[in-house]
Amino acid sequence: MKPHAEIAEVWPREGRVRLVGHIHGHPAEGEWRLLLTRRSHAEQRLDYPARVKGDRFESELPVADLAAATDTAEAEIGAGVEEWDIHLTDGEVELRAGRRLDDIHGKKKIMVFPEQRVRGIGVRPYYTVKDNLSLECRTGAAT
Asked: Could you point out which of 4, 35, 72, 124 has its C-alpha 20 to 30 Å from the C-alpha of 26?
């Protein structure tokens, strides 16, 4: 299995998304950051500090930052959905965040996280078809 950031806990509440997990298959030395990449425009990125102790990491992001970035994107793409992929990076390597070591396949249809709304934008973590963790920002009515 390739190195990745194995997600153990996802806490979407109080205007933040908190992530806890383990660095799997790569040395955990150095300074790490949580990196969000807008899927439709990979050059647009947001990053946040990650606390690492041993191979365990913990980080959080304010959903208002995603709502602000989606407000900007909405002017470009119109109403709809923007997706952000989550990585953990030490500046040299980017490890995709996901949950693969639990033998539960198809998390996209099984695990559903609550949406948080900020300025008319709904932000919700979700698992992709490859069991990676991403964020969905939806304009318009609550889903």
From this structure: 124
Handedness of CA 118, 83, 53, 89 (dihedral sign): negative
108 three-state secondary structure: helix
pTM of the entire predicted model: 0.91
Residues linked to residue 130 through DSSP beta bridges, in sequence order = none
Q: 3-7: long-range contacts (C-beta < 8 A, 24 or more apart)? A: 3/93, 3/95, 4/95, 4/96, 4/97, 4/98, 4/100, 5/57, 5/86, 5/87, 5/88, 5/95, 5/96, 5/97, 5/98, 6/98, 6/99, 6/100, 6/101, 7/97, 7/98, 7/99, 7/133
User: What digits encode the pLDDT tens for the residues 69-128?
Assistant: 876 554 454 558 999 999 999 999 999 999 999 989 899 999 999 999 998 899 999 999
Q: Which two tokens stand for residue 32?
A: 């790490």
